[in-house]
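>> Question from a student workshop board

For tomorrow's exercise we were told to take the sequence and the ligand below, predict the bound structure, and bring the output to class. My setup keeps failing. Could a helper post the expected result so I can at least see what it should look like? The ligand is adenosine-5'-diphosphate.
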Amino acid sequence: MKGNKTGTKRVISNIFFGIRYTLKFSPGFIAVALTEGIGRALWHIVQILFLRYFFDAVESGVDFRQILFVLLAYTAYNAVFELFNKWRLNVYVPRARIKLHKCVQSELYKKARSLDLGSYDDPEFYNDFIWAIRESDTRFIDIMDHVGMIVNRVICSAVVLGVLAVIDPVVAAVLFATVAAGFFIKKKITKVWYDCNEEMNPVRRKISYINRLFTLPEYAAELRQGGISAHMRGQNNKALDEYAGILKKTRAKRYSWGFLSRFLMDTFPQAGITGYIIIRFVLDPMFTLGDLSAGISSCFKLFWTLDDISNYVNKFNEHGLYIEKVRRFMETEPKIRGEEKDVPGFESFELRNVSFGYNFGGEEKAVLSDISLKLRRGEKIAFVGYNGAGKTTLTKLIMRLYDVENGEILYNGRNIKDFDPESYRRHIGAVFQDYRIFAASLAENVLGREFTPGDEEKVLSALGAASFEDKLSELPEGIHTQLTTEFSDKGIGLSGGEAQKVAIARVFAGEHELMILDEPSSALDPVAEFELNRSIAENAGDKTLIFISHRLSTTRMADRIYMFEQGRIIESGTHDELMTQNGKYAHMYTVQAKKYLADQLEKG
Ligand code: ADP
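>> Workshop helper replied:
Here is what the output should look like for this input. Compare the format with yours to find the bug.
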């Protein structure tokens, strides 16, 4: 994984980025976290000092009322601190967590929408993005919490070390050295885990993919056919074995370093140092009962706080890594850009010697070569050809979802790169083959936004243009029927053809001047297809239309047809012209017509 190798400087810079980011949305959080940190540090210190005072007071026979007063002050401090802490945990943090989660996710979603489609072709970028989104609700809060913790542990350790140094400087020095050694060992363990995780990442990706396969409804039907399900289960088992193998490889290192760290940070301070303090108490008459109690409790506290500091420092390494991904994502600027927001109404398109290739694993895969064509307002043109010929890619270039590297696309005579992509795309509506229906009402799906009173006519007319009326009359709540069951038990599912019609209605409702329909009737039977195409042609009126179709019966209504083969236009003209040419189009049309005739005869 690129970007995982972050040095200390970068980790620190990332943590500050995280803090700044949190402060932007929840400015009070740092103050609350620091107050807790300082309050808790004082709580530990007060505890040690109180015990020391108490035992010394009992030993030297101090006035009982004075002890009672100190006890009351100690209890009052504890009560106030606990009240504050409960308010922090039960009221402040949950509220801040939701607010922060909302703001961070909203920023990440906004950013995701602004990025080029090409970003999704980079699997590493995509994985990091998914991870960043998934962790966003806990990570930023954890960073702030841990900043508070570090502050409290540092203050606490410094004071406790001071107290201990007064009681017994040797113990303080030995303890400090032990925990410092433990810290470096822990760092080693973290590194072993880090390398282990690096190796595990691709395996985890595989396991997560298979997990998605078995949980997402879109795979349910396919998984019930043939042997793919058994194959995937086999792959999952293989991945889990691989996972176990990686763990096994590092087992010896983890065991030995782990034992050494526990010995240095647990067993040695507990048994050795406590024993030493007790022996001093027995042998040294100047060593008071208070010194004994303060010595032992400081020892435990110091060991515990220093151990915690090393834990949090290691945690910050992990946070730094996470922030690195968020930062990389947030700092990625879309490459598809343009200044001019005022895009005039559509008059004409011209493609001049356009060539294009997708970037696939760092290599460019040529898809379109030397495409030139012109399109004027009101014209209806068709792209035809076999699968993979590059037709959809060309429409994606026209929509500027990708930018061309060679050649140019002119909109009203201007290079489309001059225009702000969002403003430019408002003039174009497209239905792609992989259109999506959202978990929202039918009306919202058509409008592509929230429904407001007064939208009804627009929705009905768009659905009419996409010949959806028959289905609409069956829907219990009409245009307000919820689609999909994601958000509502009453939601309905649509067939492939019906869903395609809703996607087409979306383009009609958008009132775009140029409409691109990629295989608009692929999910329909021939009668429904004829009906839909007639409706689209009628309702498109003077709109400009580019449609892609395999079924050549649809293309007869086009003013011009472009036949694609392996990324090139090999024939163009009207249906009659291309039939007269008797080339590849004519051949494809004849084969389809024969097949259609044979199907009809079979049906009788
Ligand atoms: P058509 O619409 O004519 O079926 P496409 O434009 O969808 O053809 O695809 C043309 C070629 O580009 C195909 O070989 C396809 O595999 C490839 N292709 C399409 N999208 C991508 C992508 N995002 N990354 C890499 N290759 C792609």
